[in-house]
Design goal:
This protein is mostly beta strands. It is 11% helix and 40% strand. The chain has two helices and 13 strands.
């Protein structure tokens, strides 16, 4: 089978290279450096890069990113460009049709879901040298610590001058 490597990250915990790839059908999967499938293709709608032995995954479905939407065209004469109105329309649609929208979770380097794919949002943590990330579910934001999801990750103390 032919793959297009999209992302790659070195797993500092066990010296294995883990590759996030897409196949020719644009399905996401994860392979190790020996070519073994860690995460089957098509299981998730999108897979992030690994960091701290963990990565975000998203189910199939529409993404809630109204902050990136420039306009909503309702018909040929009505275009909405006001950011607050766009946010309101998207929030109403999400409440009416939550099944249309993707959910987020976190997997470990073995492909196991260590945070179930049921969150509305998980903040990106790749390359940010953090020991936690924010997650949002039903409008509630909480902080999740990596050492609780992956025991190999040791909690580190924040430095006084840290911006994390």
């Amino acid at each position: 089978m032919e793959y297009r490597q999209i992302k790659s990250s070195h797993n500092k915990f066990n010296d294995l290279d883990i590759h996030v790839v897409q196949n020719q059908d644009y399905e996401w999967g994860v392979l190790n450096n020996e070519g073994f499938v860690i995460v089957p293709f098509g299981k998730y709608g999108w897979i992030d890069t690994f960091d701290n032995g963990l990565c975000r995954v998203r189910s199939h479905g529409q993404i809630r990113n109204s902050h990136k939407v420039l306009a909503i065209v309702q018909d040929s004469h009505h275009v909405i460009t006001d950011k607050q109105e766009i946010q309101k329309i998207n929030d109403e649609d999400f409440k009416l049709h939550p099944e249309r929208y993707a959910k987020w979770g976190i997997i470990n380097e073995g492909g196991k879901e260590v945070l179930p794919v049921e969150y509305d949002e998980i903040w990106s943590f790749v390359g940010k040298n953090r020991n936690s990330t924010k997650v949002v579910k039903n409008g509630q934001t909480t902080e999740v610590f990596f050492h609780e999801l992956n025991p190999i990750v040791l909690p580190h103390k924040k430095q006084l001058n840290s911006r994390n």
